[in-house]
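Chain A, query sequence.
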Amino acid sequence: MSTRVLAPPALIERLWIYQRERFPLGKTGVLLAVFSAASVSVSAHLSGRALPGLATFAGAWAVAVIFFFQLRACDEIKDREDDRRFRPERPIPRGLVSLRLIVGLGFAGVPIAAAIAAALAPALLAPLALVWLWLALMTAEFFVPDWLKRRPFLYLVSHMAIMPLIDLFETACEWLRRGGAVAAGLLWFLGLSFANGCVIELGRKVWAPENERPGVETYSGLLGPRRAAWLWAAAASIAFLLLVGTGFVTGAATVDGVLGGILLAVVWIVALRFVRRPEPGRQKLIDAVAGLWVLVCYASAGFAPFLGLVFR
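Chain A, predicted structure.
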């Protein structure tokens, strides 16, 4: 009786599985489309310019996708030992793909992003390089990995600082390409990007007690599930204030306030339910609402000024 040796899945199939588990292109692509389009839109509105052409939006989106894949690749580098020991089911430690391959794909994005930026405006290479510099420092844990990991909130701030830097590049696709300068009001929007990064990061690390795993750092493990849920809701509240501040400078404070206020109420209700009963299903709801919050924030900030229902 002969036995058949099954060939390993083809590379394209393995990469497809990897993206499904670690970088879902559909969901990520939609979220980054809203994020990048909102960034370009806010920049144009603050400067009193008409929206740019499709090439600007497409270029900003493509570079954003590359940035976030590179963030994922750098996370794989930082977490490789912890993944090997505590999360062997992940694609790299289980042997689906190699770390070298994923990092190689991240590096392959460098000339592509640089070519897109240079095609839009050569001056965009400066903010592009700034993002990559910060990303390299993050990957090296700012050369003090043990010290930084003992200070989880400083770790959070230092890593989420890349969000306004990415947003600076995204907005520069509009203002720098058109020979303008950074509008003062843009600081509200950059601050919103920082706060939204915290909402996402906290939301994905608020876990139910039965889901906590040795060696896996979560904010619920650090603070307890209840305080971690309140911290997540507090981060969304700060993001809401920055959204309204963005609305005041773009002339859409009413729309931003109403939409953001409705969703903020949802955030607090979800957090309260988790506090009362921290169960796995409610953990997943926090993660889902965190993503919805960011999506609505950027959609409102970027496009409410063009609805006609504006407050001046």
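The chain has a mean pLDDT of 93. The first helix runs from residue 11 to 22.
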